[in-house]
Design goal:
The complex is a heterotetramer, with two copies of chain A (375 residues) and two copies of chain B (331 residues).
Chain A: H1 13-16, H2 44-69, H3 83-92, E1 98-100, H4 106-111, H5 116-124, H6 133-136, H7 147-162, E2 168-173, H8 180-191, E3 196-202, E4 205-206, E5 209-210, E6 230-234, H9 238-253, E7 259-264, H10 283-290, H11 294-304, H12 310-332, H13 352-374
Parallel strand pairs in A: 1-2, 2-3, 3-7, 6-7
Antiparallel strand pairs in A: 4-5
Helix pairs in contact in A: 2-3, 2-11, 2-12, 3-9, 7-8
Chain B: E1 8-12, H1 13-27, E2 31-35, H2 51-55, E3 60-62, H3 67-79, E4 83-87, H4 98-105, H5 108-111, E5 121-126, H6 141-145, E6 151-154, H7 158-170, E7 175-180, E8 187-191, E9 203-206, E10 211-215, H8 219-231, E11 237-241, E12 244-246, H9 251-260, E13 263-270, H10 275-286, E14 296-300, H11 311-314, H12 318-330
Parallel strand pairs in B: 2-3, 2-4, 4-5, 5-7, 6-7, 10-11, 10-13, 13-14
Antiparallel strand pairs in B: 1-8, 6-12, 9-11
Helix pairs in contact in B: 1-7, 3-4, 8-12
Classes of the chains: A alpha/beta (375), B alpha/beta (331).
The complex binds thiamine diphosphate (TPP) (2 copies) and magnesium ion (2 copies).
C-alpha cells in the first residue's frame, strides 16, 4: 500500500512525507495488510502479549511523567508515541542479541525484563543505570548522543570473534544521525560486516529541531552511502517494526552485515519534562499523529479480528493500575544513594589516592555528625 | 527589537547574557549565533530567547546535532570574517568538538602567523547543582586552560555576564565563555550604560585580611557566603573572582596573598589538575616567603560527577570552604 | 567509453574496479574522448599551459623528495601520480573560490600561485605554512585528517551570508572519508546547501591501508547517503577533472548545493619520505598504474594533435631545470626561524603571561650568549 | 612466532614494546590490537611489526582512519570481554577520540557500577624532538590525568616499556600508555624473565641529596643527564621517574623532597596546568615545612608546539633543568 492510503488528512505533511517506501503491516485503523518482503505470523497469544507490552510501557511512562511533575524525578524522557517502534524492536531481539539504547528506550528495556524502577532510579538521580547490562543484554543508557552506536559495532565485532551467534541492535534518534560517531559506526559496520542493526527512531524532532535540520533526504537513504541496506518502516506499526527488525537481525547474525532501519514515528510528548514543545510545534501536527497511535491500532485489530475481548483489555488495564501503584510506591520509597558510593567503582582497582579521598570524605562528614551530637 | 528603556534594572544572569548577545549582534553584523535548539526554542536555558525572531535564521542558526560540526564550521566562518558565537548545550557535550577546538581553533592564528584570526566564542553552561542526569554538570575548564591559543573566562553574576559576553565577542581571539548554569536565575541590577573594566581582569569582590579565597563562576557566590558566615566570628576573608582562567591575571591575587599569607582555591571541577593546581603552583612560586600555609584546594572529588541525589556532597559548599580556611590556620 | 577500454592489462584489478561510472575525456594513450555530460573546450595555449603546470609541479616534487633525502627537509609528502587530479582541480577554481587543502595539494597550491618554497619551508620545519591564505585563496595545509572539510563548509556558509559569489573546494583523501568530521561536513553542506565541492583524491591508500579498509563501495557513492550528487572521475585525466570540478563549482556557486567528486588516482610514491610502501604493496600494481600516468597522456595528446612540438617540451624541461635550481638554492639558503617566533601570534592580543614568558626566554638565551662571550 | 631465546639482550624501546605486546597476546587470547597501519606496515614506528602476520587480521586490526571509531568500538569489544590495545598513531591525533575517552571509556565502569570493566589500553607515542610537522610532537597527558576513571602511565626505557605494556594490558582499568617516541631507538639490556614491581609505582632512578628532579617519559633521560652533569660540581640530584601519572604515587616523592628540600619538575608539555602544577601543589601541601624553595617547573612554553627547526628551544633540556635547579638554590 502507499502512504497516501493511510488515512491522514491532506494537510498533514509530516506523515505523507513518509513516502511510498514506508513498510506497513497494520494500518492506523487496525487493518492487517501484506507486504511482499515482510511477512509475519503471530498467534493470538503473541498478539495479545504485544498489546499488553504496549499498554504497560505507556502506563509506566505516564506514571513516570506524573512522578516528575510531583517532584519525585529530576527529569523524565517520555516514550509516548514511540511504543510501537520500541516494543516491535524489543520483540525482535533474541536472547543472544545485545541492545544499545540511548535514553528513551523504556519499551525495549521492558522487553529485556529491566524493571521500570531501575530506569526510574536513573531519572530520579540515584544512579546512572542500575540494571545489569550483560545479564539483561540491554546496555546502559547513553546520554552523549551517538556514542553507543560505535559501542554496538565493537560489541558486534566481538561476537564475530568469539562466535557469540548474536547481533547487536543500536538505538538512536533522527538528530543523532548528524553526529560523526554515528556515521563512523556505519563505516565500521560496513567494512567489518559486523552483525549490527541500526535502529533509528525518527520521531521528527531533536528537541526543538525538526528533521529538516539534520537531513535533506529521508534518513533511511543514509545507509546506501555506506554500502548497506536502509529501510523505512512505519514506526507506529508494531508488527511491521517487528518483522523488519527480525529480518535485519537475522541477516546480521548470518554474516550479511548491517541494516539501517528508520522507524518513522512521532514524539507525542515533550522532549523531556524540562521541554516546552509549544515553542516550536503546532498542536495540529500532534492531532494528526494521534490518529496513528501505535496502541490504538493494535487494539482495533485485536477487536476486529476477535483475538481479544473486553475482558482481556480490562485485565491489561487492571495490571497497568497495579504496575502504576508499584512504581509509585517503589519510587517514593527509593532510598537515596549513600554519598560515599561516588568513590566506589571509579576504578576496578581502586587507587590509593581515591581511597584516601574517600576516607577524608567520610571523616569530614563524620565530623558533622559528631558536631550535631554535641549540639 | 525591544529597546532597553531603563538604564538600570534587575535581570537574571541568563537574561543578561541574552541582552549582551543582542547588543553584540546589533553592534556588529558579523556576529552570528550557532547551536542546537537556539532558534525557536531559544536554547534549553532560553539564553538566546527571541534572537532568531529578531535577527533571522541566517544569523541565529539552528545547527545539525553535531558539536564538531558547530566548531568546524565556525572556524570556516571566522576565516571568512564572521564572529560566530557557538552554544554548547551542556558542558558534557563539548567533547565531540574537542578536536576542532584544540587542534584548529587554538592553533590557526599561530599556524597562519596571524593571517587567520579565530574570532570565535564558545558559550558553555557549566557546573552542577541543577539535579540533572549524567554529562550535564561537568566543569571542563582546565582542559581548555591548559591549551595554548585559547582564552578562557567564567562569569559569576548578571552584570559581568552582560559585559563579559560582549567583550568576549569583540575579542580577536577564541574565547571559551563559561556560564554558571545554576546561577542563571540569580538576579542583579544591571546598568547597561556603564562598561566596567576589561575582560581579562581578575577582581577582588570582597576585601579581607586573614585568608584569600579564590573562586570563579558558580563558586564565587559560595565563597562570598563563606566570607559572610565567618565575619561574625571575627575572621575576615578576602574573596577574589578570577573571571579569567586563561590567561590568569594573578597580580591582584599575589597582592592579596602577600597580605593575608593564606589562600584557598575553590572550584567544582575535580581537584587533581584542576585550576587550583596551577594557582597553587604559581602562588607558591611568587609568594613563597609570604605563605603561612600551603595553598589549599577545595574542589570536586576525583570521581566522575555523581548522580544528582548526592551531588551536593560532591560540590564544594560553604562548610567545605570554611573547613579549608580553618585548615590553613592550623599550619 | 567504459573502463574496460582504457588500456589496462587484465590482472590489474585496481583500475578495472574504477567501474563504468569513471568519467574520462582523455585516455591513457592520449586520445580525446567525449562524455555526454562533460564537455571541455580548451585552446592550444591552455592545453600547453596545463601541460606546463603538470610538468613543473612534478619537477618541484622530485626536487623536494631529493632535498629530503639529502637532509634538507624533515619530511616530504609527494604528489607523484596525482598531478592530473590537482592541476585539473586547480584550473577549475576561479578567483573568488577558496581551496581547503590537506597536506599533499602542492599542485593546487601551484595553481593558486603559492611559491613552492612556501610549501617547502613547512616540510623543512620552518613554519606551519607561510603563504597568505586569503590573498592566495588557498588555505593553509591541515594535517589533522578531515578537519578542513568542516572549515570549507563554514567558509562556504560565510559566502552565502556575505554574497561572496564564490565556492569552496575541500580536498581530502580516501582515508579521510572515514573521519566523523568529513561526514559531518557532508551533513552541514547538504542541510545548508552550502556552496562547497568535496574533492576526494582516492589514491587507493591511506598510508599502508588499501581503500577496502575504509569502504565497501565506491567512494563517490557516499554522497547519495547525504542527498547530493557524487561522481567518479579519472583522476589521472586532467581534462576530465577540470570539466567535472568546474561544473560542480558552478553548481555550488549558483545555489545548487554540494557535489562530491572522487578523483580516482594512484599514489605513485611513498606516503611520505618516511614511509616504506614495499611493506604493503606489490611492485606490479605500480607498474600497471605507470601506464596511466597523468602527464604522459597530455604529452601524447599534444603531440598527436600537433598542438605542441619538441621545442615546446624542451622549453618546459628547461624551465623545470631552472625552477629546480631556484628551489634547491632557496631551500638550502632558507634561514632558520627565530626561536622567539614561537611566542608571536599565539594570540591576536598577546597575553601578559606570554609576554613575560617570552621575555624570560629571551633573557635565558641571552645569558648563554654572554656566557659564551665570557668563555 | 620467534621464541625469545636469550634471557637478556639489548633491545630498543620500540622493540621492547613489540615484545611485550607479543607476550600479552600469547598469554591472553582476548587481547586484540587495533589502529591505523598496524598490520602489514607494523605501525609507523614498527612497534607492532610482525604481529599481524603471527596473530592474524582478527587480532591485529587495521582500522578505518577514525580515532573515535577506534575507541568507540574498543569500548564495545571491552564490554564483550576483550582487551583491546588501541594505537593512536601520533599524540596529536588522539583528539578525535577525546569524547569517547572522556565520556565513555573513563565513565562506563562507574556508570555500570563495575559491571562493565573497560579493559582498554590506549598507546600514544608522545612528545617532540623528532623533527616532525605539526601535531606530531604533542604531550597531552595532563588532559587525561585530570579525567577521573582513567589511569595514565609513561615509560622511559626499554625494560620498563616491556613490562609496563604487559601490566597495562593485564590491568582491569583503562590505561593511557604514553611512549616517548624520541626514545624508541634507545637500547637497554632486557631480561624477560624478571618482572619488576607493579605498574603504578614511582621509582627513584638516581639517589641524590641536594634537589629532587621529577620526570617521566622522554625527560627522564634528560634529568639523568643533568644529574651526571652537576655531579662533578659536587651537586647531587635525586632523579625520580614518575612512571604513573594517574594515579600519582607520591610517597617516594614526598620522602625525597623532605630530604632534599628542593624540587624541580620537568616535562615537555606546556607548563600551565601541566603535570607539574599538580605535583607542585601536592608536594607543597605535604612537604610545606621541608621546602627550602618553591617547587619549580621546567616545561614546554605555553605556546603551540613550534615548527621543528626551533623545537629544541621549546623542549626542556639539560641546561634548562640545571638552570631551574640553580634557581631553587637561590631561594
Ligand atoms: C553530544 C550531545 N549533544 C547534545 C546533547 C543534548 N541533547 C539531548 S537529546 C538531544 C536531541 C536528540 O534528538 P534525537 O537524536 O532525535 O533523539 P530523540 O530525543 O528525539 O529521541 C540533544 C541535542 C546530548 N545529549 N549529547
Ligand atoms: C586525525 C588523524 N589521524 C591520523 C593521522 C596520520 N595520518 C596522516 S596521513 C594518513 C593517511 C591519510 O590517507 P588519505 O586520507 O587517503 O590521504 P593520502 O595521504 O592518501 O593523500 C594518516 C593516517 C592524521 N594526520 N590525522
Ligand atoms: Mg528525535
Ligand atoms: Mg589516500
Amino acid at each position: 500500500m502507499s502512504s497516501g492510503d493511510i488515512g491522514v488528512s491532506p494537510g498533514d505533511s509530516s506523515f505523507a512525507e513518509a513516502g511510498p517506501e514506508l513498510i506497513q503491516l497494520l494500518t492506523p485503523e487496525g487493518e492487517r495488510v501484506e507486504h511482499p518482503d515482510y511477512a509475519i505470523d503471530l498467534s493470538p497469544e503473541q498478539l495479545r502479549a504485544i498489546y499488553r507490552d504496549l499498554a504497560l510501557v505507556r502506563r509506566v511512562d505516564v506514571e513516570a511523567t506524573a512522578l516528575q511533575r510531583q517532584g519525585e524525578l529530576g527529569i523524565w524522557a517520555s516514550l509516548l508515541g514511540q511504543e510501537g517502534a520500541q516494543i516491535g524492536a524489543g520483540w525482535a531481539l533474541e536472547a543472544n542479541d545485545m541492545a544499545f539504547p540511548t535514553y528513551r528506550e523504556h519499551g525495549v528495556a521492558w522487553c529485556r525484563n529491566v524493571d521500570p524502577l531501575d530506569i526510574i532510579s536513573l531519572f530520579r538521580g540515584c544512579d546512572n543505570g542500575s540494571w545489569d547490562p550483560i545479564a539483561t543484554m540491554f546496555n546502559l543508557y547513553t546520554v552523549v548522543i551517538g556514542a553507543q552506536c560505535l559501542h554496538a559495532v565493537g560489541y558486534a565485532m566481538g561476537m564475530q570473534r568469539d562466535g557469540g551467534n548474536g547481533a547487536t541492535l543500536a538505538f538512536f534518534g533522527d538528530g543523532a544521525t548528524s553526529q560523526g560517531d554515528v556515521n563512523e559506526s556505519f563505516i565500521w559496520a560496513s567494512v567489518f560486516a559486523a552483525p549490527v542493526v541500526f535502529f533509528c527512531q525518527n520521531n521528527q524532532y531533536a528537541i526543538s529541531e525538526p528533521i529538516e535540520k539534520q537531513s535533506r533526504i529521508p534518513l533511511f537513504q543514509r545507509a546506501r552511502g555506506f554500502g548497506f541496506p536502509g529501510v523505512r518502516v512505519d514506526g507506529n506499526d508494531v508488527l511491521a517494526v517487528l518483522a523488519v527488525t527480525r529480518k535485519a537481525l537475522e541477516a546480521a547474525r548470518t554474516g550479511q552485515g548491517p541494516t539501517f532501519i528508520e522507524a518513522y514515528t512521532y514524539r507525542m510528548g515533550a522532549h523531556t519534562t524540562s521541554d516546552d514543545p509549544s515553542r516550536y510545534r503546532l498542536a495540529s501536527e500532534m492531532e494528526a499523529w494521534k490518529l496513528k497511535d501505535p496502541i490504538e491500532r493494535v487494539r482495533a485489530y485485536l477487536i476486529r479480528s476477535e483475538q481479544a475481548d473486553a475482558e482481556f483489555f480490562a485485565a491489561v488495564d487492571a495490571e497497568g493500575d497495579q504496575l502504576a501503584v508499584r512504581i509509585r510506591k517503589g519510587t517514593v520509597e527509593m532510598p537515596d544513594p549513600d554519598a560515599t558510593s561516588m568513590f566506589a567503582n571509579v576504578y576496578a582497582e581502586q587507587t590509593p589516592y581515591l581511597t584516601d579521598q574517600a576516607a577524608e570524605f567520610a571523616e569530614y562528614h563524620a565530623s558533622f555528625a559528631s558536631a550535631g551530637q554535641e549540639a | 527589537m525591544a529597546a532597553v528603556t531603563q538604564r538600570s534594572a534587575p535581570v537574571t544572569l541568563g537574561k543578561a547574557i541574552n541582552m549582551g548577545l543582542r547588543k553584540a549582534m546589533e553592534d556588529d553584523p558579523k556576529v552570528l549565533l550557532m547551536g542546537e535548539d537556539i532558534g525557536k526554542l531559544g536554547g534549553v536555558f532560553r539564553v538566546t530567547d527571541g534572537l532568531q525572531k529578531d535577527f533571522g535564521e541566517d544569523r541565529v542558526i539552528d545547527t545539525p546535532l553535531a558539536e564538531s560540526g558547530i566548531l568546524g564550521t565556525a572556524v570556516g566562518l571566522a576565516m571568512r570574517g564572521f564572529r560566530p558565537v557557538c552554544e554548547i548545550q551542556f558542558d558534557g557535550f563539548i567533547f565531540p568538538a574537542y578536536n576542532q577546538i584544540v587542534t584548529q581553533v587554538a592553533k590557526i592564528h599561530s599556524r597562519s602567523r596571524g593571517k587567520l584570526p579565530m574570532r570565535i566564542v564558545i558559550r558553555v553552561p557549566f557546573g552542577g547543582g541543577i539535579g540533572a542526569v549524567e554529562h550535564h554538570s561537568e566543569s571542563p575548564e582546565a582542559y581548555f586552560s591548559h591549551t595554548a591559543g585559547l582564552k578562557v573566562v567564567a562569569c559569576s553574576n548578571p552584570v559581568d555576564a552582560y559585559w563579559m559576553i560582549q567583550q568576549a565577542i569583540r575579542a580577536d581571539d577564541p574565547v571559551l565563555f563559561f556560564e554558571p548554569k545554576r546561577r542563571y536565575w540569580e538576579k542583579a541590577d544591571l546598568d547597561t550604560s556603564l562598561e566596567p573594566g576589561p575582560l581579562f581582569e581578575t577582581r577582588v569582590v570582597r576585601a579581607g585580611e586573614d585568608c584569600t579565597v579564590l573562586a570563579y563562576g558558580p563558586m564565587v557566590k559560595t565563597a562570598l557566603q563563606a566570607a559572610s558566615a565567618v565575619e561574625a566570628e571575627g575572621r575576615s576573608l578576602e574573596v577574589i573572582d578570577l573571571r579569567t582562567l586563561s590567561p590568569l591575571d594573578l597580580a591582584p591575587v599575589f597582592d592579596s596573598v602577600r597580605r593575608t599569607g593564606r589562600c584557598v582555591v575553590v572550584h567544582e571541577a575535580p581537584t587533581n589538575l584542576g585550576m587550583g593546581s596551577e594557582l597553587a603552583a604559581r602562588i607558591t612560586e611568587q609568594c613563597f616567603y609570604s605563605l603561612e600555609a600551603p595553598v589549599l584546594r577545595v574542589g570536586g572529588y576525583d570521581t566522575p560527577y555523581p548522580p544528582s541525589k548526592i551531588e551536593e556532597d560532591y560540590l564544594p559548599d560553604l562548610d567545605r570552604v570554611l573547613d579549608a580556611v580553618d585548615r590553613t590556620f592550623a599550619f
